[in-house]
Design a protein that fits this description.
Blueprint (H helix, E strand, L loop, with lengths): L2 E6 L3 H12 L3 E7 L10 H4 L10 E2 L2 H5 L5 E4 L7 H13 L3 E4 L14 H14 L2 E4 L10 H7 L4 E12 L6 H7 L17 H16 L6 E10 L4 E3 L2 E3 L4 E12 L2 E11 L15 E10 L2 E6 L6 H15 L1 H6 L3 E3 L20
Parallel strand pairs: 1-2, 1-4, 2-3, 4-5, 5-6, 6-15, 7-12
Antiparallel strand pairs: 7-13, 8-11, 9-10, 11-12, 13-14
Helix pairs in contact: 1-9, 4-5
Pfam families: DAP_DH_C (PF19328)
Organism: Nocardia terpenica
InterPro entries: DAP_DH_C, NAD(P)-bd_dom_sf
């Protein structure tokens, strides 16, 4: 069976999602939404960085795409600085009877315990009205800290603590808004960016902690957040910007689920703009990795190294996009409503072994 899909936005993740949609033999790309006139009218193949045309032109006309009645929208539009608008987009698709896989807003990966019940109920009501499903995921929050740790726990006799870490050099991450406006790199250490405002970390990554706890039947007493920032002693060149000495260039944060004052579940990010910064913090495997460590019996330590064209940051972008697109058939076939990772079966990359795919 072939499913009709619309790609919504063509930024870093959207471009790669387009490639996977085009490559999968069970998906038909029927539309592409773009946010401005610079990309409107361009062929999807060009927007995906392919050397051939697909025959689907991008448009800024959202209503025209909804009227195509696709089976699914792959929604990868930036949401960090437009959370309310993004949620309204998702509800609009659901009410129209269109299933959605999305990389944002990330708190919808597992909203229970982090979002107000009325917000969740509004999304569920939209899904029920249209008989459609919504699934938000990616790599982090996403499969690096939902399926990977839960897979390891399936071989556990006893679990004392789980730590899921992202340990990456972000100097090649191609998103200036995220790096400088949201994460605050290059700013004074006492100038807190959006990401580090009170409650934001637990809103964005608390979903990871609550989902792991629910899957493991673990009652938490509280979820807390902590962070530390360090400056660069030397000027750093990141993209077209220079990070001045004395300004933020390394960030470590933790979202921790506590049980009886014990850190039972921890989500940690260790982000540097240069590998020499913060030498005492945990170091990655290779240039960057996602790490899962389970203390207990047995003790597990899994380092997931990723790379795309020599760039670990791009590998994370590709992994996020592919995770969404490869789940499209399962989400379409799932019950209507707001889905989480544990609601879906395995979603392998069907038809994408080299020599099979069309990309």
């Amino acid at each position: 069976m072939t499913y009709r899909v619309v790609q919504w936005s063509t930024g870093n993740v959207g471009r790669r999602a387009l490639r996977t949609i085009i490559a999968r033999p069970d998906l038909e790309l029927v539309g592409v939404w773009v946010s401005g006139p610079a990309k409107a009218g361009r062929d999807a193949g060009a927007l995906a960085g392919l050397d051939r045309e697909i025959g689907v032109a991008a448009t800024t006309d959202a209503q025209a795409l909804l009227e195509l009645r696709p089976d699914c929208v792959v929604y990868t539009a930036m949401a960090d600085d437009r959370l309310g608008e993004a949620v309204e987009d998702l509800k609009r698709f659901l009410r129209a009877g269109i299933n959605v896989v999305s990389s944002s807003p990330v708190f919808l990966q597992y909203p229970y315990g982090t979002l107000p019940s009325e917000t969740i109920e509004e999304i569920e009501a939209a899904a029920a009205a249209g008989g459609a499903s919504l699934w938000v995921n990616g790599i982090d929050p996403g499969w690096a800290n939902d399926w990977l740790p839960l897979l390891l726990t399936s071989g556990s006799e006893r679990i004392d603590a789980i730590v899921c870490s992202e340990i990456l050099d972000y100097s090649t991450y191609d998103n200036a808004k995220v790096l400088f406006d949201i994460m605050g790199f290059g700013s004074a250490l006492d100038d807190l960016p959006l990401l580090l405002q009170p409650g934001v970390l637990t809103l964005a990554w608390g979903s990871v902690i609550h989902q792991l706890a629910a899957a493991l039947d673990l009652r938490l007493d509280s979820v807390t957040q902590h962070f530390e920032r360090l400056p660069t002693p030397e000027p750093l060149r990141v993209g077209d910007r220079t990070i001045a000495p004395g300004t933020a260039a390394a960030l470590r944060f933790q979202v921790v689920g506590l049980r009886d004052d014990h850190p039972a579940l921890t989500l940690e990010h260790i982000t540097r703009l240069h590998p020499a910064l913060a030498p005492d913090w945990p170091q990655p495997a290779g240039k960057g990795c996602y790490r899962v460590e389970i203390t207990g019996d047995p003790h597990y330590l899994l380092d997931l190294r990723l790379d795309s064209d020599g760039d670990h940051a791009l590998g994370g972008v590709v992994g996020t996009a592919a995770r969404l697109v490869n789940a499209v058939p399962a989400v379409i076939e799932a019950r209507p409503g707001l889905l989480t990772a544990t609601d879906l079966p395995l979603t392998p990359a069907r038809g994408l072994v080299s020599g099979q795919c069309s990309a």
